[in-house]
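This part of the workshop introduces the protein records we will be handling. The question running through the whole workshop is how a given chain folds. To make this concrete, we reproduce a full record directly below:
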Amino acid sequence: MQSLRQYRAYVGGEIYRKHLKLTAPLVVLNVCSDTRRVERMLELLKQEQPGGNSYMLFQDWKDFEAAFAPPKPKLEHLE
């Protein structure tokens, strides 16, 4: 998956430190509504980084399924 490769370059390669002017470590939280998708991401990560890494976290969360919709913005606060 392209996003995992991009995170590996950006976070794993510590590009974020200069780009965001950070000295603290960065952690990427991947939240998916599908358990199988999390499993596929972990499988790919194990293939590409057999030693693992310290900056990728994964969780499935059923509340983010297709029926999930964020609330509508409250535009009255902009007036």
